[in-house]
Amino acid sequence: MRALAEIDAEVVVCRACPRLVAWREEVARDKVARFADQTYWGRPVPGFGDPAARVLIVGLAPAAHGGNRTGRIFTGDRSGDFLYASMFRCGLANQPTSVSRDDGLELRGAYVAAVNRCAPPGNKPTPEERDRCLPYLEGEISALTALTSIVALGSFAWDGLLRALAALGHDTPRPRPKFGHGAEAAVGPYRLLGAFHPSQQNTFTGKLTPEMLDDVLRAAMS
């Protein structure tokens, strides 16, 4: 079993996917006007949170100008604003905002990660890129020894988690559980719960409301 710090050290130097390496570094070099004065992280983004977590929350990948800029998952973008505000309301975080790696945010009983650790063009990793990255998620699941519940933010995370859990020897229920907001499945010793991803596409349209995400996180904590 690898310790989380050891996994993090492997993640941040990974260059296994040439397309993603090129994209994350291009974004970090060219930037956007509103962040032109900032130094981007521009590397793979490790997981973040409490090593004694009972709840693991998994997204798709870092945002190009969020995690790829700040170096912390779901940090510095609208999706992170929505997620960490919910975690704060549910008692899983000490503050409702996440803007940088040194902003004082601490998670309580929770750990946040992603299926892919590099920002992908169009937010769409290829199946091969997903599979190269999954061992990091598998390692985190194994290292989080108090873990009981896993929340998948979106269908990509749901599918990736089922693959990661299968690789760890936990049989996928049959029929294969389908993703949906509020979906739940028992996979090995874990409860897998689904929630719509807190992307602007979902939160600005009302497909995902704060109350809806709060409900899933509280279910994961119960």
Strands across the major sheet, in which order?
1-3-2-4-6-5
The amount of beta strand, in percent, is 5-15%
- Largest sheet at a glance? 6 strands, mixed
State the total count of DSSP E strands: 6
Task: Please supply descriptive tags for the structure shown above.
about 220 residues; Uracil-DNA Glycosylase, subunit E; 6-stranded mixed sheet; 6 strands
Describe the fold and architecture:
- The chain is α/β, with parallel strands linked by helices.
- It has eight helices and six strands.
- The mean pLDDT is 96.
Can you lay out the helices and strands and say which pair or pack?
Layout: H1 4-11, H2 18-30, E1 48-49, E2 55-59, H3 67-70, H4 78-89, E3 110-114, H5 127-143, E4 149-153, H6 155-167, E5 184-187, E6 190-195, H7 200-203, H8 210-221
Parallel strand pairs: 2-3, 2-4, 4-6
Antiparallel strand pairs: 1-3, 5-6
Helix pairs in contact: 1-5, 4-8, 5-6
Explain briefly what this protein structure is.
The protein has 8 helices and 6 strands; from the N terminus they run ααββααβαβαββαα.
